[in-house]
Amino acid sequence: MFSDRDEFKLAFLKRLEMMSGKGFQETNPNDHFMALGHMVREHISMDWINSNEQYRISKNKQVYYLSIEFLLGKVLVQNLLNLGIYDVVKEGLSDLGIPLEELEEMEPDAGLGNGGLGRLAACFMDSLASLQLPGHGCGIRYRHGLFEQKIVDGYQVELPEHWLKNGHVWEVRKNDLAVEIPFWGRVESHFRDGRLTFSHLDAEYVTAIPYDVPVAGYKNGTVNTLRLWSAEASPYPAGRDILKYKRETEAITEFLYPDDAHDEGKILRLKQQYFLVSASLSAIIKQYIDRKGVINDFADHVCIHINDTHPVLAIPELMRILIDRFSLSWEEAWDITSKTICYTNHTTLSEALEKWPVHLFKPLLPRIFMIVEEINERFCKELWEAYPGDWERIERMAIISHSQIKMAHLAIAGSFSVNGVAHLHTEILKEREMNDFHQFYPFKFNNKTNGITHRRWLLKANPELSSLISNAIGDQWIHHPDELERLSGFLNDGAFLQQLDMIKQKRKEQFAKRIWEKQQIAIDPTSIFDVHIKRLHAYKRQLLNILHIMHLYNRIQDDRSFKFYPRTFIFGAKASPGYYYAKKIIKLIHTVADKISRDPVARECIQIIFTENYRVSLAEEIIPAADISEQISTASKEASGTGNMKLMMNGAVTVGTMDGANVEIYEKVGTNGIFIFGLTAEEVLRYQQQGGYHSAEYYHHHEEIKRVVDQLVDGFLPDGAEEFLPIFDSLVDGNDQYFVLRDFASYAAIQEKAGEVYQKRDEWLSMSLKNIAYSGYFSSDRTIGQYAEEIWGIHPVPNFLAK
Ligand SMILES: *Cc1c(COP(=O)(O)O)cnc(C)c1O
């Protein structure tokens, strides 16, 4: 432990030499990072032990958050801030000639997630601990997180990611808490003591080893646990080819699936899902029994939240444990299970709703399949009683139909709460996608609009802006982000707006410097930084953005005196490796960027930067430098978005559609705080249901649209005819599923308006400040507070033993 700078320095030097086996002069930044990391983890450990002890003795209900992804990024600096030792450490290191930023560079991003869903889970962990709530994360320790993206010749190339290369300083492996997970084999039933019992025979076992990662709350002594499971060969491999068995076992936690919207349909993915659920439930039940719980009261003391349907097997798995191990009746087990599990839906895209073919599922998980079958039978019987004769409805709602298991249906039937992630998304679920279920279970549906932790996305990512805010309104906003609203008192304060402007300028210069170092491109830091960062997906419409840039280029070609305020368009996006169309769009962005950079007139106004390998730590550099936030998904398709919230909190102004949480941003900042364009969700859904949209009409009747679309393939772009024909086809012959051409004109108009407002400095800065001032609502502290109160029924358990 260390309490001041000198004590820290001594302890650090000693630790550094002990760990590296080198004299100080010989050590390198990675040695420094490892030494500091271990010191910080030890610093946390007393509070961690005490927090766990509090939870063990507490009678309070506990929640377990099961998620197939946790996109943590780097955690060193966040830990320093939350533990309140940031200044001591930074200054101590600085005395030794070590910049903290240099150490931070050494920490690999823990990229155990694809995008929004995984980052949400990480933000939730921070808020749970900061609110002193008894909430534990359960996930998978993938040996390789999301692939590393390289751009070669404008194409995305995927490389395996190696975050564990130098070991993971934050984790603690707990061999004594390992559990065995059964796969394959067969089930035998017996009639014993007047009841039917089941045994799972000839199973192949896989050992699940927990690695615990501490999650420190903000200066409150609470340290929660994120438990990540790793698959290893069981010591009892039951007579077979040992090497093959070992390889297949370790494969379960080898890779994160690089996909966030399509069902991969891989048996390995199903293994991962059951592995996570079965290991987590074993540990949850053990902890509950150790707390001397009586199994019948389980649902009063434990809540299990499933983040999307990936962990939905928690439902049949809990049933299995209650019936096979605790000998409860089906009815008793169902009563407990359906009062314990709650479910968050993250998408209405039908291709992203998970389904598993029975022929894959049944042999891999024989006992679980039996239970799912019985859940389905009983569920269908209930439906039959409610809707006698309505076969069509029952078929639509069944959990198993046409030899497919529908995971979302299982999730809704077996949980007591189903929430969407933004107001609009929840309404669409209730009124459309899940309408049958909403009619049957109206009481289960509720909304919890997503949030982001302001401690990472503002306090940590933007220390300059954080100080400006604290100087103006005090630092209570860190505990109560709603207090940011007090900034609205400065909307017309010229001197304050000036300072805000200077801070943004400084971060833009920093980012420009980084781009120069990494990509040898000089970008103009006085231009508008127009930022589009998120996974590459057709519905997120990076295509609309790049087509509009081509249109701006055309305007310059037509009229060499046409001038607009210079813009730097910044993209960051990974495409799923098998997502051909998304990869074409990455190539298109690069091809257009190259074309424009060769035109001496156009490049004065337009620059395009594609940042390689978009990830959490890169987001933390881009977001504070952003002027404009592109949130231009086809309305109704983005469930919430959280990138929109991060950018808003850092004073970027949104150019967006009325989709996901953009709608709620609009409600907070009003018409003068955001640039809204395009079709509404209702209009999109009406077109989809009733037809009436013909993209060819937009193509043929709007000269400027026809021109950019033709330019994809007419030789304007090198190799366009081969490269971009699939994009051309999707827009014209494929009837433009995502309404890119339909929204084109209104997008161009709003972008022009945004450019004009940007030049009225005080008006723009005031708009920017308004976004910061009303961003407190989008803190995940608010979101988690609502989950805790309205779904989980949990209360804070302060760590009274905190040192
Ligand atoms: C926040 C975040 C996302 C989600 O962005 P959206 O714009 O909401 O899709 C994805 N990836 C990373 C690295 C993030 O930090």
Brief characterization of the structure:
The chain is α/β, with parallel strands linked by helices and 803 residues long. The chain has 34 helices and 25 strands. The longest helix has 29 residues, at 29-57.
Helix percent band:
40-55%
Tally of strands = 25
Main CATH class of the domain at 454-680 and 743-775: Alpha Beta
Bound small molecules, which ones?
pyridoxal-5'-phosphate
CATH architecture of the domain at 454-680 and 743-775: 3-Layer(aba) Sandwich
User: Can you count the helices?
Assistant: 34
pLDDT < 50 runs, ≥5 residues: none
Strand content: 15-25%
Structural class: alpha/beta
Please provide a written account of the structure:
This protein is globular. Helices cover 49% and strands 16% of the residues. Strands 1, 4, 7, 8, 11, 12, 13, 14, 18 and 19 form a ten-stranded mixed beta sheet that branches. A six-stranded parallel beta sheet has the order 22-21-20-23-24-25, sandwiched between helices. Among the domains are: 62-73 and 109-164 and 268-450 and 786-792, 3-Layer(aba) Sandwich (Rossmann fold); 454-680 and 743-775, Glycogen Phosphorylase B (Rossmann fold). The protein has 803 residues and is of the alpha/beta class. It contains 34 helices and 25 strands. A hairpin with a 2-residue loop joins β5 (148-152) and β6. Pyridoxal-5'-phosphate binds at residues 115-116, 119, 534-535, 615-616, 619, 641-643, 646.
